[in-house]
Amino acid sequence: MTTLVGGPATGPSPSPSSSPSPSVREGAPLRDPPQLMSQDGVLKARIVVERRQVDVAGRKLWALTYNGRYMPPTLRIQPGDRLELAMENRLGKYTNLHVHGLHVSPSGDSDNVFIHIHPGQTFHYSYRFPGNLSPGTYWYHSHAHPMSAPQVAGGMSGVIIVGGLKRHLPPALRYITEHVIALKDFQAQGDAIKTEGLRIGATTNRTVNGQLNPVIRIRPGEIQLWRLANISANIYYKLHLQGQRFQVIAHDANPVDRIWPADSLLLAAGARFDVLVRGGPPGRTQLQTLPYSTGLAGNQFPQATLATVVSEGEPMHPPALPSTFAPVENLGHATVAARRTIVFSENKAGTAYYVNGKQFDPNRVDIRSKLNTVEEWTVRNDSDEEHSFHLHVDDFQLMSINGRPHQGHGWQDTATVPARGQLVIRIHFTDYTGKTVLHCHILNHEDKGMMAVLEIVR
């Protein structure tokens, strides 16, 4: 079985005796989120943040919503576009917005995670994306430290799609059906989604686009594009489609150099994959998340059914997939300007988390990197649980895992760091200067200190 990740699958799976979550009754047809699309190079949008009662997975629950929805609109743009976004805060606490994975300025009114939008305020974000912006699936969510976990767990996350990925496919496949498969989970507490005292290993409700076990329809032989996105606050998903293989065409919105197959894909917190799926013989099968352990000090995620895939109708006979896909810059032979070690650690009680022995301080710069250089970082994990390493602004090439060379066929912005292990990554800092962050994307860990400030300078 091939298992690749939002980073590699390194943790041991729970034993077969691990209790799977209860089976979920087959639900309604999958509903893709509504879309807000750019026109003439500009997307103008307004997002209202408020706590309100909404339909979630067939229940009426109080949630933290964007535009009154648990599964908010997908923002769809093209490389070179502008995004003018007004965010109105109707919560009782401050918030802000991060466009996860996007190569964009971290300063001013752009992807600035140090902004505080206080209750009653409206902030006007303005993003100007480069013409070479990588196509694929991204997401947006609160980055309001130290409230990222409760705000995202409460519902404050949605999907961003940058167009252009299908142009690398054969002409006959450029107009195939595509679906957003946004993975969000919630813990219920009475008539509300829980936002305080979140325990990562607690019983949770795993949804696709806010639905429980929705039905995805496909014709036998038909090829569809699925945009798999883990937009949860804390948990991992190890995705498996019974009887089928995923054909990966992009990882963290980075097109791959060749399409590669996988029986399962580990989506660590924050990770995404764009995949092609071929309809099987007539009948029903399940999209599942398999059992997964993040280590002795981590969590045991049980097996669960996420969606039911129904193959029916007239068979289709699409063309074969190409052996190559998109050009990828290889940093393996780049001149390295600096080498650094980033250490993730935590206390035994699990109440404090550190980067290089320090907890997050927005007023301290932890790393300064020079624009237009390549750096090599060793990301070391000194704890007994996996962590989900994420870097803002610039993506990276994963070079090795625990000393073994890694071939991911592209770049990424999130990677799983093995318990008591390490990754080596290379980063090419291009286009943008300013202060930003690197952190563990398990947001409970980020909120408790596992984040550091990176300043990119000329």
Automatic annotation (TrEMBL):
Sequence ranges assigned to domain Plastocyanin-like in this UniProt record: 50-162, 204-278, 350-455
Cross-referenced CDD domains: CuRO_1_Tth-MCO_like, CuRO_3_Tth-MCO_like
Region listing for Disordered, in residue ranges: 1-37
Family matches, as PROSITE patterns: MULTICOPPER_OXIDASE2
InterPro entries found in the cross-reference section: Cu-oxidase-like_N, Cu-oxidase_2nd, Cu-oxidase_C, Cu-oxidase_fam, Cu_oxidase_Cu_BS, Cupredoxin
GO molecular function, one term: oxidoreductase activity
Top-level taxon of origin: Bacteria
Pfam families in alphabetical order: Cu-oxidase (PF00394), Cu-oxidase_2 (PF07731), Cu-oxidase_3 (PF07732)
Keywords: Metal-binding, Oxidoreductase
Record's protein name: FtsP/CotA-like multicopper oxidase with cupredoxin domain
Native organism: Streptosporangium album
Lineage summary: Bacteria, Bacillati, Actinomycetota, Actinomycetes, Streptosporangiales
